[in-house]
Amino acid sequence: MISSFRIISYLEGISYLLILFVTMPLKYMFDSPEPNKIIGMAHGFLFLIYIVFAILVKYEKQWSPKTLVIVLLCSIIPFGTFWMDKKYLTKES
């Protein structure tokens, strides 16, 4: 479960960065909204999967509610999912 969550968190983080630094500038600076629609839809799907997996991993790793909130908040902060992976998923508990 944790290895799947790690993959999902990386994909979610990458899709978020693509939206922020690639597709949004394309949309607003070059009037090209199509990439934003495609990446945005993928990101939305990955975001929902991230939330579900975070809740499932909470029970597997016996996280406190505070830790779960931090992990969930990491999904809305640029580069947050990468930090979350290093802090909460790769360390030995």
TrEMBL record:
The record's section on InterPro entries has: DUF3817_TM
Which PANTHER family is this protein grouped with? MEMBRANE PROTEIN, MEMBRANE PROTEIN-RELATED
| Record-given protein name | Membrane protein
Record keywords: Cell membrane, Membrane, Transmembrane, Transmembrane helix
Q: Which gene encodes it?
A: ydzA
**Highest taxon in the source lineage:** Bacteria
Principal subcellular localization: membrane
Do you know which NCBIfam families this protein is assigned to? Answer: integ_memb_HG
Recorded source organism is: Aquimarina muelleri
Q: How does it sit in the membrane?
A: Multi-pass membrane protein
Q: Which residues are listed as membrane-spanning?
A: 7-26, 38-56, 68-84
A Pfam family that the UniProt record links to this protein: DUF3817
Q: Where in the cell is it found?
A: Cell membrane
Q: Where is the DUF3817 domain?
A: 3-88
GO CC entries: plasma membrane
